[in-house]
Amino acid sequence: MEKNIETFLGCDNEFEESRIVIFGAPYDSTTSFRPGTRFAPKTMRSESFGLETYSPYQDLDLEDADIFDSGDLELCFGRPELALKDIENRTAEIIDCGKIPLMIGGEHLVTLGAVRAAAKKYPDLNIIHFDAHADLRDEYLGAELSHAAVIRRVWDILGDGRIFQFGIRSGDRSEFKWGKDHVKTSLFGFEGLDEVISDIGDKPVYFTLDLDVLDPSVFPGTGTPEAGGVTFKELLAAVLKVSKLNIVGMDINELSPMLDQSGASTATALKVMRELMLAVYDNKFSE
Amino acid sequence: MEKNIETFLGCDNEFEESRIVIFGAPYDSTTSFRPGTRFAPKTMRSESFGLETYSPYQDLDLEDADIFDSGDLELCFGRPELALKDIENRTAEIIDCGKIPLMIGGEHLVTLGAVRAAAKKYPDLNIIHFDAHADLRDEYLGAELSHAAVIRRVWDILGDGRIFQFGIRSGDRSEFKWGKDHVKTSLFGFEGLDEVISDIGDKPVYFTLDLDVLDPSVFPGTGTPEAGGVTFKELLAAVLKVSKLNIVGMDINELSPMLDQSGASTATALKVMRELMLAVYDNKFSE
Amino acid sequence: MEKNIETFLGCDNEFEESRIVIFGAPYDSTTSFRPGTRFAPKTMRSESFGLETYSPYQDLDLEDADIFDSGDLELCFGRPELALKDIENRTAEIIDCGKIPLMIGGEHLVTLGAVRAAAKKYPDLNIIHFDAHADLRDEYLGAELSHAAVIRRVWDILGDGRIFQFGIRSGDRSEFKWGKDHVKTSLFGFEGLDEVISDIGDKPVYFTLDLDVLDPSVFPGTGTPEAGGVTFKELLAAVLKVSKLNIVGMDINELSPMLDQSGASTATALKVMRELMLAVYDNKFSE
Amino acid sequence: MEKNIETFLGCDNEFEESRIVIFGAPYDSTTSFRPGTRFAPKTMRSESFGLETYSPYQDLDLEDADIFDSGDLELCFGRPELALKDIENRTAEIIDCGKIPLMIGGEHLVTLGAVRAAAKKYPDLNIIHFDAHADLRDEYLGAELSHAAVIRRVWDILGDGRIFQFGIRSGDRSEFKWGKDHVKTSLFGFEGLDEVISDIGDKPVYFTLDLDVLDPSVFPGTGTPEAGGVTFKELLAAVLKVSKLNIVGMDINELSPMLDQSGASTATALKVMRELMLAVYDNKFSE
Amino acid sequence: MEKNIETFLGCDNEFEESRIVIFGAPYDSTTSFRPGTRFAPKTMRSESFGLETYSPYQDLDLEDADIFDSGDLELCFGRPELALKDIENRTAEIIDCGKIPLMIGGEHLVTLGAVRAAAKKYPDLNIIHFDAHADLRDEYLGAELSHAAVIRRVWDILGDGRIFQFGIRSGDRSEFKWGKDHVKTSLFGFEGLDEVISDIGDKPVYFTLDLDVLDPSVFPGTGTPEAGGVTFKELLAAVLKVSKLNIVGMDINELSPMLDQSGASTATALKVMRELMLAVYDNKFSE
Amino acid sequence: MEKNIETFLGCDNEFEESRIVIFGAPYDSTTSFRPGTRFAPKTMRSESFGLETYSPYQDLDLEDADIFDSGDLELCFGRPELALKDIENRTAEIIDCGKIPLMIGGEHLVTLGAVRAAAKKYPDLNIIHFDAHADLRDEYLGAELSHAAVIRRVWDILGDGRIFQFGIRSGDRSEFKWGKDHVKTSLFGFEGLDEVISDIGDKPVYFTLDLDVLDPSVFPGTGTPEAGGVTFKELLAAVLKVSKLNIVGMDINELSPMLDQSGASTATALKVMRELMLAVYDNKFSE
Question: Which B residues 89-148 touch D at CB under 8 Å?
Answer without folding.
Answer: 93
